[in-house]
Amino acid sequence: MENFRIKVFRTVARHLNFTRAAEELLLTQPAITQQIKALEEEFGVPLFDRNGGRVVLTSAGEALLPFADQMSSISTAAFEAVTSAAGRNDGNLALGASQTIGQYLLPRFVALFLREYPRVNVTAISGNTDEMLEAVVEHRIQIALIEGPGMRKDLRTEPFMEDEMVLVVPADHPWAGRRIEAAELESAPLLMREVGSGSRRVVENALAKLGLKKKNLRVVMDLDSTEGLLSAVEAGLGFTFVSRWAMRNQMALHTLSIAQVKGLKLQRKFSLAYPAGPEPRGNTGAFRRFILGYAKQVPS
Q: Which residues does 241 contact at the CB level (< 8 Å), separation at least 6?
């Protein structure tokens, strides 16, 4: 349904790379170049600056991009409305998930969802909470499953599942299996997720309630994945906080252990995030209803 040249433009604009756009769209690079050239001739202005081996949007391209995103959203919504009215769900559903959800929960959710809606083509991306919220705003995904609190007024967030974060130490660490005082955390090396991660915000807020200010914490390394944090703890670089969902393999292998901190509560809610406004319809609405109805039935 969508104008193909606009779709090509949007793909090149997202990657700022003609080769990667060609790979995503299963076209040759000359075909991508031809479509962009035809669109530029239609508008009468260049949309990309391709000098010096770099691809950047021109001011005209930057002006077109938000409309190209809206065209994609309108096309998807129209398709979903028609198929839903006809009593069936098919077409595409683009999901995003912050990393713990994406790695440990999303595959289960999608598998169960596709049992009910086998005609839907699901794609998914992952990143930290801020990145997934931005992807919703930019219409690159239709709905996001996030770990941290949503910090945007242009999106609606809806909790769907409880989670608990735990203090992780090597299995042979003196804290392993113990209950420690919060003050002991100040002198020990802490491994944290990167700035923008919902997990990091949850940890910082919880520690602040115990009187542990960020400036007094000994953060020795930031990592951009939960698996990276766990590997770093196994290597003896420090301790960290992760979701219980991420700990099952290491606990079974007895390579890592959990310690408790007196007075520390690290409960959080996983949430759905989607554009503010009317309740989602079509595939997005079907996935939202599915998650709200079935997430609690997924075994922990």
A: 165, 166, 167, 168, 199, 203, 266
Q: Which of 33, 30, 61 is nearest to 48 (CA)?
A: 61
Q: What is the pTM of this model?
A: 0.67
- Given the candidates 1.10.10.10, 3.30.470.20, 1.10.1670.10, 3.30.70.360, the CATH classification of the domain at 1-64 is 1.10.10.10
* Token pair of 5 as six digits: 């040249």
Q: Which of 32, 35, 62, 66 is nearest to 47 (CA)?
A: 62
DSSP 3-state percent helix, strand, coil across the chain (nearest 5): 50, 25, 25
- Alpha-carbon distance 207 to 160, whole Å? 24
Per-residue pLDDT reduced to its tens digit, 163-202: 899 999 999 999 999 999 999 998 899 999 988 888 888 8
Location of structure tokens 């002006």: 63
